[in-house]
Amino acid sequence: MTSTFTPSTAAFRLKLPLPLFGLAGGIVLWWLFTTPLWHSDLIVADFSPERTIAALVQLVSTGTIIPHIQTSLRRVLIGLVAAIAIGVPLGLFVGLSRRLERSTSALFQFIRMISPLSWMPIAVMALGIGDLPVYFLLTVAAVFPILLNTTAGVHAVDHRWLLLARSLCATQWETTWRVIIPAITAHVLTGLRLAIGIIWLVLVPAEMLGVSAGLGYYILDTRDRLAYSELMAVILIIGAIGYGLDSSLRFAHQQWTHHGQSQTYS
Fold this sequence. Notes:
It holds the Pfam family BPD_transp_1. It comes from Stenomitos frigidus AS-A4. There is one protein chain. The protein is mostly helical. The chain has a single domain (about 60-265), classed as MetI-like fold (Orthogonal Bundle), CATH 1.10.3720. It is built from twelve helices and no strands. The radius of gyration is 24 Å and the shape is elongated.
């Protein structure tokens, strides 16, 4: 019995280990820049892969980092929910009203170009020290990708669907709920993916606003304790969690898109 070998099969086999090759190459470069073989700086050696992995294992095995991860994820969830509650309805209103869109477009684009971290002093003065300014900054960071993608989704709705709804004497609410919202879900998921990327970048500096827990706080704590191996371990944790969040939303987007295509052609 002979096996069939095609170029597509070979390409599939070659693609499987490529991410591993990329990670291995990054680890080699990391080791080259931190190995004591090239320099005698003991501080730089604390950032080496060996010491970082040892610190990472210790942080996870002892559970030291778990409360900080939970606190950061809770803040991200609250900020994201607040951004969805603001961005999706506002995006619907803007998308459905050309006059409202023209009157708010310049304002939204102007505010969107201001870094969320620029609001840090104002957030502290207005909301005090604690979780509230962090929630505010994360919401500001996430709301505009969701709002703009929701508006773009409304504009992308097939006009034939709207004409069909009108021909069936559907009200504006029924058209919005049964036609527009299902049609823009893929755009909203794209906005969520962009928002989670921005919110995760803003999280660490936002958690340096006088809070007593979180990944950003723990980075400051390791710096003050000169625990550089732990600092690098927390950086790896931040990257791994961010990658996991992005991958989850990418998978949800792909599943929804596939489901929508299946419904269209069935």
